[in-house]
């Protein structure tokens, strides 16, 4: 398609020179020399998969006073990177993901994905919500097929791809089940398969494992890591669990408590595979946790202050 | 099974008491027919096809009127839920109109549409439209935000979001209103047919009155109830079960 447009554009340029008028056969039959000389300039290399440029977000609270949730976030996510964002509750972590997903637009600043400004939701960026948002009226397979259906893929391809991703998350036998029939960990995997099935560039995960027991969570960590290395997707993973962030991430960004600012960045250069109980993970987590604790205290102080008012 | 046995005993006893009262001849048979004569009326009504024709005519009107009110009520309820202005104005009007028995629309309907089927269908629509609208509005309000967010996130928007996410997400809530709407439509239809005569079950019932044939009147009343029960059990309960199975709700009930 892209090639055709280029050729067509060349055809128009050619005709503008007054030699030939552009016909239905487009530029396909033009002399080779012309096509060769008018090759488009190479695209500038992609600087970052996701680029938040001075992003701030303000909410109106119930009593009308504006609340600054995010303040001047500058963040670049490299292609194929596994970035974890940690911070206390109320630091705007979820807002950040919603901005990248295009479900909200930033009050100020800009969000770029593949160097294009985000204008709304798109299946190149899929968000896995904290509450998953699986559709209870659809079977597991229909849930996984949903995004592909919206993309207009035909039934055969949807079937085939859904099967592939369900196998990838070890749920091949549960395609015809309904969501409520599955355990928490299985639901997480359905959400993963549903997100991966549209083959997004960027996977956004909003505390997806917060509600799971430790064993299930450990298994899903392995699974997510495997899927990430198999598919080469860029992942932005939000959590309040520092160990989880260190276990999974290439890099951990710590956000401050309200308004959310990027306080510190930690490169995690521990070799994979890692395990959450490993001493090296624990040591590194300890360092980050110290920084996080200051923010947690602010967050708690804020909660307690509300209590006193009442 | 025990439940079924108890119900069977109850109904047998009910017919028994009826038979006894009829046998005692407190009222003359043309005022208080025996179960046997009602059964005869049912059998002969079906034998000469008059009941079948009446049922077919009535059901056709129901389907038209009810279908129309689902369509209109769905759109109206959804719009009201999506607009604060509409909610404050039209929404309030709809709630207050609900206290108006739909048969009150019949004189107007006859003036507007003449003595035609359209007048009856109008009354049926007015009977069920309001409850469908109100339940659609309530259902729209109660859809958890996450479903529409997830839908938009996966590439649905506008009409496809409505059809693929909002509508199915509101169906369990909506079903109660649809059921109520059906019941209201059914009552409105029979009342309409009783007043303004042209085939249908309501008219057969009135014919029984005109001929002083109480067995026929009671036979038609039984038919009206039976059809209501059949629709409830075979259509609405079926849909309800399917929804419960999918959503994993009402398992305990």
Describe what you observe in this structure.
The complex is a heterodimer of chains A (310) and B (253). Chain A is of the alpha/beta class. Chain A is built from 9 helices and 10 strands. Chain A has helices spanning 2-16, 32-37, 93-101, 140-151, 155-168, 184-197, 214-231, 242-248, 279-309, and strands spanning 50-60, 66-77, 82-86, 108-113, 116-117, 125-128, 202-206, 234-239, 251-255, 262-267. A 6-stranded mixed sheet of chain A has the order 6-7-8-3-9-10, sandwiched between helices. In chain A, strands 2-1-4-5 form a 4-stranded antiparallel sheet, with helices on one face. Chain B is mainly α and 253 residues long. Chain B is built from 10 helices and no strands. In chain B, helix 2 packs across helix 10 (214-247), helix 7 (145-153) packs across helix 8 and helix 9 (200-210) packs antiparallel against helix 10. Chain B is globular and about 70 Å long. The two termini of chain B are 17 Å apart. Classes of the chains: A alpha/beta (310), B mainly alpha (253). The A-B interface holds A 101, 103, 121-123, 126-127, 129, 131-138, 146-147, 149-151, 178-181, 194, 198 and B 146-147, 149-157, 160, 164-165, 168-169, 171, 243, 245-248.
Shape of chain A: globular
Order of helices and strands of chain B: HHHHHHHHHH
N- and C-termini, Cα separation of chain B: 17 Å
Specify the oligomeric state.
heterodimer
Strand content of chain A: 15-25%
Radius of gyration of chain A: 23 Å
Mean pLDDT across all amino acids of chain B:
89
Structural class of chain A: alpha/beta
Strand order of the largest sheet of chain A: 6-7-8-3-9-10
Helix share, percent of chain A: 40-55%
> How much helix, percentage-wise, in residues of chain B?
over 70%
Overall average pLDDT of chain A? 78
- SS summary, helix count of chain B: 10
Quick one: overall form of chain B? globular
Order of helices and strands of chain A: HHEEEHEEEHHHEHEHEEH
